[in-house]
Amino acid sequence: MYPFTYTKATDTREALDAGQRGGRYIAGGTTLVDLMRETVEHPGTLVDIGGLPLHEVRVTERGGLRIGALVTMAEAATHPKVRIAYPVVCQALELSASAQLRNMATIGGNIMQRTRCTYFRDVTAACNKREPGSGCAALEGFNRTHAILGTSDSCVATHPSDVAVAFAALEARVHLLGPDGERTVPFADFLLKPGSTPNREQALRQGELITAVEIPAHARPLASGYLKVRDRQSYEFALTSAAVALHIRRGVIRQAKVAAGGVGTVPWKLPAVEQAVIGERPSDRLWAEAADHAADGAHPLRHNRFKVELLKRTVERQLRIVGDIA
């Protein structure tokens, strides 16, 4: 681990000042500390923001839900407002990491976490995300767990967050605070596809701080859930996953929100699947036909071609599960 300095911010202004000077924000530290230990990351200054007033979960004036950036994964997963309104968020959180990590990791940190690509974490391997211009060892290496959607010639690493898939499906917004004031970024624009600059992963500006993630109000009743397919049943990242929310009224699907994880360089929204079910009546045939669009535009690699069919089956199964609940 490289030497670094540590400071604890006592208020938001102090945090922003330190961030503007190049300090890296830390709260739970469950990802950043690991990367520092492995010498993948070596920030000069850590700015502890754990004491800032960003721990609230509340219903917004328009009926949405705002989750403070410093709410832990465990707190969000068990919060009654979240559990009642958006089971998909709770399930995504409960299927993430271990109980110990969920007690420490925060919502803001979770969506900021970096890929689990083994080449990214191996400082001897070529990785454009870690060292721009060095190449991507995963393209010709063992790439079974890598992305099939949103990839580029520069990077094929997946985004590891489960709850980010739920946020993408629900079309959440990320609230930011920086030297120039507050702004809000749609979740779909917050996490960036790699393109030719895979080292730039979020739409954050220098010194900006995540203050909350807001889920907008959706039509009610809204049934939702999260399905995660992985190599083992605990403490494992997704091979594929599906976040689904359906509003069904009088036997007709009026609203559908669907996103996939484990297959994209960012949580992957599936608008073609959504459009295929809206206005239709639930049926096994509908779920299968809609899910057939889940892998549209996929570019599988040598070792992960199985993800194309697995993604379709995962989405189909979760559409059926949520449809039965609704």
From TrEMBL:
Transmembrane segments: none annotated. This is Xanthine dehydrogenase family protein subunit M. InterPro entries: CO_DH_flav_C (IPR005107), CO_DH_flav_C_dom_sf (IPR036683), Diverse_Substr_Oxidored (IPR051312), FAD-bd_PCMH (IPR016166), FAD-bd_PCMH-like_sf (IPR036318), FAD-bd_PCMH_sub1 (IPR016167), FAD-bd_PCMH_sub2 (IPR016169), Mopterin_DH_FAD-bd (IPR002346). Keywords: Oxidoreductase. It comes from Streptomyces gottesmaniae. PROSITE patterns: FAD_PCMH. It comes from the Bacteria. SMART domains: CO_deh_flav_C. Residues 1-220 form the FAD-binding PCMH-type domain.
